[in-house]
Amino acid sequence: MTGDPLFADGFDWVVLAILVAKAVIGFTIVVVGVIFMIWFERKVVADMQNRIGPNRAGRWGLGQTLADGIKLIFKEDLKPDRADKPVFRLAPYLSVVPAFLTFTIVPIGGVFTGGNDGGVELFGRRTWMQVADPPVGVLFLLAMSSIAVYGIMLAGWSSGSKYPLLGSVRATAQMVSYEAALGLSVVAVVLLSGSLSTHDIVAAQAGSIFDWNVIATAAVPFVVFCVAATAELNRPPFDLVEAEQELVGGFHTEYSSIRFGMFYLAEFMNTITMSAIIVTLFLGGPAGPVLFGPPLIWGTLWFTLKLLVFLFIFVWLRATLPRYRYDQLMDLGWKRLIPLSLGWLLVIGAISIGRDAGWNRPLTLVGAFSLGVISWAALIGAMRVAKLRRGGDEFGELSTATERVG
Known about the structure:
Elements: H1 13-48, H2 64-74, H3 85-103, E1 119-122, E2 125-128, H4 137-158, H5 162-193, H6 198-204, H7 213-216, H8 220-232, H9 244-247, H10 257-282, H11 296-320, H12 326-357, H13 361-405
Antiparallel strand pairs: 1-2
Helix pairs in contact: 1-10, 1-11, 2-10, 3-4, 3-10, 4-5, 5-8, 5-12, 8-10, 8-12, 10-11, 12-13
C-alpha cells in the first residue's frame, strides 16, 4: 500500500478542507458515541439488575447524559490548596486527547471486497474513511496508550493529597503491567499482516472470515488483547483504580466540575476507541459482504455492528463479574498474559518462517504447537515450585516468630 491517496497530488486547500472535515466528523462521532455509551451502559446494567434506569430526561432517558454533562459544566471548579495548579489543570487533557487521537487511525467504513481498497470520493479526491492513516499506525496506538498513563499519574501527584497519589500509583502500575501483554498481542497481528498501517491490516483481512486475524492467530492474541485492554481501560473486573472502599475515588478524588467530567469522558471514550481497535485488528474492521443497495453503506454498517457487540460485552462484564484482588490482577498480567502472548508470538513466528522457507506445513504446525505447550507447562511448573517454596519460607518465618514470642 502507498498510504492515503488524498496526498497523491500534493497538498492544497482542498486537501486541507477534507482533513478538517474528517477530523470534525471523527470528533463528533466519538462525542456522540460517548453520550450514547453512557446511556446504553446505564440501561443495560439496570435491565440486568431488574431496574428501570434513567427515564426522566428525554424519551427513554436519552437526555440524561446531556443533563449530567450540563450540570458538571456549571458546578464549582475546586482546586486544592496544596495542588500543583498547572499540572492539575493539564492532567485531564492528557487523558482525553490520546483517547480521541487513537480513534483517528481507525477505518470506520469503505468497501474492501471485490478488489476494492476501501477508498471513497470526497470533493473529487479519493481518500480513506479514517481521519489519518500513518504508516506507523500501530506504533501510534501504543504511543497514545502510553501517554494516557501520564494523565492519570500526574492527576494523582498534582492533587497534593495522599489518597489520589495512592490511586494514581496503583493505576500506573496496573496500566504498565498490561501494556506489555497488549503490545505483544499486537505484534502477532503485525507479523501476519506485514504492515503497521491500520488500513493495510483491514485490507489483509478482507478476503473472507477465515482471513480475520482472530482466526489466523488461533484467537490467543485476541483473548490476550481483550483482557489487557479491559485492564488498560480500568473497566470491571479490573477497576481497582477506583476502588472506592479503599481509595475514596482514586486518582481523580480532588477533581470536580468539568475537569472531573473530562476524566469521565475519557473513560468512556477509551472504551469506544479500544473496542474499535479490537474490531480493526482482529475482526476485519469495516470489511464484510455487500448484500444489496449502495456498497458504501455496508462497510460502516458492519463496523458499527461489530463495535456494538464489544460495547455490550464490556457492559455485560461490568454487571456480572466481581472485582479482582490486586495481587490477582498483577499475577494475571505478569505471570499469565505476558508469557502466553510472548510464547504464542514465537509460535506464529516459527509458522511464518516455515511457510516462507517451504517447510512441511503440518509438521511445522505440530512442532510449533508442541514447543509452545512444553514451554507453557515448564513455566507453570516453575511458578508452582516457586509458590510452594515461598509458602514454606513464610511458614518457617511465622513459626520462628511464634517461638520467639512464646
